[in-house]
Amino acid sequence: MKDVVGVVGWQDGQISQADAGLESAWTSIRAGMRRDVGARMFDQWLKPVRLGDYCAESQTLDLLVASDFSANFVSGQFGDRLRMAWRSAGAGVREVRLRRAPDATGPRLLEIVHAEPATPAEDAAPVAIASNFLPRHGFADFIVGDTNRLASSAAQAMAGEATPRFSPLFIHGGTGQGKTHLLHAIARAFSAHSPAAPVLYMSAERFMMEFVNAMRANETMAFKGRLRAARLLLIDDIQFIAGKGSTQEEFLHTINDLIDSGARIVVTADRPPQMLESIDPRILSRLAGGLVADIQPAGLDLRLAILESKRAVAGDPPVPDAVIDFLARAIRSNVRELEGAFNKLVAYGQLTGRSIDLDFAQGMLADAVRANARRITVDEIQKACAAHFKIDPSEMRSKRRARAVARPRQVAMYLAKKMTPRSLPEIGRIFGGRDHSTVIHAVRTIEALRESNPDMDADVRALQRLLEG
Q: Where does ATP bind (predicted)?
């Protein structure tokens, strides 16, 4: 395995020494980083970083830290600077990845990296390098809600001791919704009860690259042997093999052989099988023949639950309820961005000693909030309020003043003021040509009613959740 230096040990949980050239470069880079960022910042965040795996083929080096929180922070604050320093050091490193240091007693995840051509006697052996399961990606850390319940339950069944009733499991959903988390959770749980069973994890892109390299090196038999030895195969982002004819053919043979042998297969993608373009129909048929489970964007309740779970282990400074509510409502694009926003607030609070309050959170996350903002229209608000209060949408613009019509109209004006950038005169014109003073009166009326009438407050909250998606 001369293409890999400083790698994690095969299956024994031990870490070998990194290549001397990398050690020398790292010593120089550390000295430069200390000068650039200052002793205090360096000692707190960069001094504990140590060398991990290095793959010469991709020229990627892993830098290990003590926790997932530290990995996220160091990557966000110093990742570009570290990458540039390593590229300038002449040590053969083009990319760096910040990762939590391996748990020496934990299970391992097998991930193929480029190997030297195997001898014929080795062809049948699963030649792979051990790579860590991500400790934070377990089932206990996966917060379940209505939008991901099926995928979570199916993943646990796939990882269980009993033979699952379905295979393959196909999980689809948007970026950052938890697909990769479930893959690692499956691998960890499966290895806990079957530690001797080979587990193989790779992205579809890695599968494609490894297959092409195997063909060029005339070692396709060794490549096939590695794949078919797996008792659990996990492939991430299968959409990336679209249009790759020979790769698809090999993938089809692999999953057919593994299914016939009783192995378990889990595949993820960003869309359901029937919507994957330029992929062999035979592959799609195989993937759809097991269980297809989707992960929808997290709703407000799930986002709140995710933040509560992070707050429970974040430590000081405390994050108040108002900030949790703000984050859950403002960061809606995906779970990964939501967790990143929370980590940013806590890290900044820890570094500066500042308490975290709503004004601080809104200022720190202004760019993220703008990026996540969905432009809610007054027309959407009118329709939602009319449906909620069971009146005709035309009543939002009518002149009728009966309470059954006027109160829903006032709620809609209130929400239009709170949830859209429209000015008071603009809102008044949309509501049947009313004066801006009418809108002001409506906003004040609903604000007062929310404080004195729990039913009104519940109605407004329900409408806000509906409109925020």
A: 176, 178-180
